[in-house]
């Protein structure tokens, strides 16, 4: 009886191996040979699933995005409205090992979007999806009557998005100076500052 291979699971295994190589050794070490070794498969098998590095990196970026979206969709948003909003926005911050790895990989791949049109297009799409999540929070504060009366919705969406991105970068590049606790406290402070 022939062995049944789950091709999607195999692609995810390769993507996770790519993440591991990049996080441990840097993007420049993400060669077919090193990724195949990390995935415990041959280079030929890896090329069967991803014919180009760009294709592999696009799959890796999409996997990060999908995991964040899936986690956010499966959360139970208990507590106050502000707590629920904080829970949603925390999906984009490196506050535990999984999210830290995802954000680190995302940051590294983001630098590739400057020179790879395929990745740049995907990055724009995911940027818009994340902006929509941030918009949902700001619009939610307005809709339930918690937002300050003088709040400029569009500016606050941009400011909150920039804050989330900045905290993710600081949390990854300077975790000793911008701790998980500081990340959470800053997010809470900012959300409260948007309220009456």
Automatic annotation (TrEMBL):
Protein name listed in UniProt: TetR family transcriptional regulator
A Pfam family recorded for this sequence: TetR_N
Chain ranges of the HTH tetR-type domain: 8-68
Annotated DNA-binding residue span(s): 31-50
InterPro entries documented for this protein: BetI_C (IPR039538), Homeodomain-like_sf (IPR009057), HTH-type_TetR-like_transc_reg (IPR050109), HTH_TetR (IPR001647), Tet_transcr_reg_TetR-rel_C_sf (IPR036271)
Protein source organism: Virgibacillus phasianinus
Molecular functions per Gene Ontology: DNA-binding transcription factor activity; transcription cis-regulatory region binding
Entry keyword set: DNA-binding, Repressor, Transcription, Transcription regulation
PANTHER family in alphabetical order: HTH-TYPE TRANSCRIPTIONAL REGULATOR PKSA (PTHR30055:SF226), HTH-TYPE TRANSCRIPTIONAL REGULATOR RUTR (PTHR30055)
């Amino acid at each position: 009886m022939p062995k049944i291979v789950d091709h999607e699971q195999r692609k995810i295994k390769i993507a996770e191996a790519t993440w591991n190589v990049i996080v441990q050794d840097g993007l420049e070490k993400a060669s077919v040979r090193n990724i195949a070794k990390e995935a415990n498969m041959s280079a030929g098998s890896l090329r069967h699933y991803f014919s180009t590095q760009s294709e592999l990196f696009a799959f890796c970026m999409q996997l990060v995005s999908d995991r964040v979206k899936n986690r956010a969709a499966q959360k139970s948003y208990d507590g106050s409205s502000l707590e629920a909003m904080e829970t949603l926005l925390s999906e984009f911050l490196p506050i535990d090992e999984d999210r830290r790895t995802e954000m680190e990989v995302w940051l590294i791949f983001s630098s590739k979007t400057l020179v790879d049109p395929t990745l740049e297009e995907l990055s724009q799409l995911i940027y818009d999806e994340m902006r929509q999540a941030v918009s949902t929070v700001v619009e939610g504060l307005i809709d339930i009557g918690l937002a300050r009366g003088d709040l400029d919705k569009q500016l606050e969406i941009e400011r909150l998005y920039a804050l989330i991105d900045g905290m993710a970068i600081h949390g990854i590049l300077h975790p000793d100076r911008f701790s998980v606790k500081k990340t959470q406290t800053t997010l809470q402070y900012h959300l409260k500052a948007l309220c009456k």
